[in-house]
């Protein structure tokens, strides 16, 4: 599989190169001379899926970025910004072609965004090898947190393993002894179970894998009812989660605590509504976090886009603020990569999460929270922090990263 | 190693509950497959877009229910809307494809899928929508300790069985039904006998679209209403009509229940069954993988013995 994919990638990259060079020839007379580079806007490619069933997540990510720029008067560190939204269509080959075009034709200064890990895996090398900084504001695979870390890669969200392990720790803290696990049958699903079990020490009654295309959970729900666990843990992103949550409630199982990751969040809550009330989730941020930066972000975001932001939007907003602080630190001069990298790594901005700093592998070191779905006074649903589960948590892969001191 | 049955699936009550789940899923499949098999059988037309008609039905139901504030009004209005939508599609696209070969039909209807999946996103937004369960059916029946069987699911079962009975009556006992059966057997001959085959096609198509839309509305309160929601169901619907025999409503009914039962009970039983042969963790993954293959294995087995399906429409 990996071989096929890489073969495919070379094919598209050659085509991308051809296209890009063709476009380059056409664009030569218009290309801005280096002299005026200082005055030209900073170009940022925002990779966010805009088509297909997962488009809602990409929309959150894009709108979070837009909100950040609005608060910054469409400037990063005093320089004007031009945003290119790149729709990866959730297809790695498409993502690579479009990102290459953005790098070679549009000459973007930064690539940010990316909802899904498989897209990040695909564009990682094209971006970092071109000497461009890549900042993931959602996807956080272990690959680039450990041995595969790169000085050109930053992550402003989390490492996937952390989020699942938060729920393992939370189950432990809440005193649940017998837990039922259920995830889709693919890599991320297996990682979720492993992450949960890394901190949970009680008895795992059963581990159930369901197909990614599953619509009806009645068979699994009957099984849960017959086992009567203290709690269930699940990872069911997108529509899978909408179906599971509603059917779980309808089957009268809601008295069994529902622990989850990426299953009940502000992107799916409009469709889950009351069915998700009281269900638990693990996250690094929730809309109710009480700090001035967050209050302003959530209020203005809802006013502008008319929906409640999820972590995708919050992390994307933080990414805009991070870049603003970094460009300001280097005085708008993006030429010195080492200085720019140090400026990003300093993370000298106010995060909606309260504090924010990068670890040695350029992934965040941050707190994780147990969150619960609540209904707000205005009738909308959101997740809300219940308690801090992990404090200043470093992801489990950081120790394996040998980050070069200079680029 | 755990014994099979210890809190597992081999337990009579649980098996009954799973059977009921399987029947209910089968009935939902039947509503989608019935229209598909008629269109395929009578018109010899491969309509991949049948799944998006199910999706459009769900969207119409959810938005009309939200607009009117009532599930019942939503359902009542969504049915004619789905019918009209199907007829418009027939008029704009499908009508021009009847005389083309299957490849053109597959390509064109696949294009319709892509177009409509994006279309609903433009109109309704990318986030999944919800349709509330009507108050009248919001309760549950306790079937086993700790598990409620939602009344709404029983209602789906009843609605599906009623639809099946109605379809049986229409197809077997009315003049239009006789023409449909005749068309499934030999369409050119029906046309030669002076029946306006185009009008019959339109009728069948509109009815099929309405059935798919009905399935969509009924599924909306338990499944997430989102772009592409019909795509998974479409594959199973094709399995159903191939097992049942293309063009046969009776075949679709039997096959839909069979597929629903195999799919649901298989998913529950397979991991436990595998535990007899291997350790727990590999049994889980192998079982899950085998369970998702099971429907197709059953299809292959049935086709090996009855290549035209269980109840072939063409003798």
From TrEMBL, chain A:
<feature type="domain" description="Leucine-binding protein">
    <location>
        <begin position="41"/>
        <end position="374"/>
    </location>
</feature>
<keyword id="KW-0029">Amino-acid transport</keyword>
<keyword id="KW-0732">Signal</keyword>
<comment type="similarity">
    <text>Belongs to the leucine-binding protein family.</text>
</comment>
<protein>
    <submittedName>
        <fullName>Branched-chain amino acid transport system substrate-binding protein</fullName>
    </submittedName>
</protein>
<dbReference type="InterPro" id="IPR028082">
    <property type="entry name" value="Peripla_BP_I"/>
</dbReference>
<dbReference type="GO" id="GO:0006865">
    <property type="term" value="P:amino acid transport"/>
</dbReference>
<keyword id="KW-0813">Transport</keyword>
<dbReference type="InterPro" id="IPR028081">
    <property type="entry name" value="Leu-bd"/>
</dbReference>
<dbReference type="Pfam" id="PF13458">
    <property type="entry name" value="Peripla_BP_6"/>
</dbReference>
<dbReference type="InterPro" id="IPR051010">
    <property type="entry name" value="BCAA_transport"/>
</dbReference>
<dbReference type="InterPro" id="IPR006311">
    <property type="entry name" value="TAT_signal"/>
</dbReference>
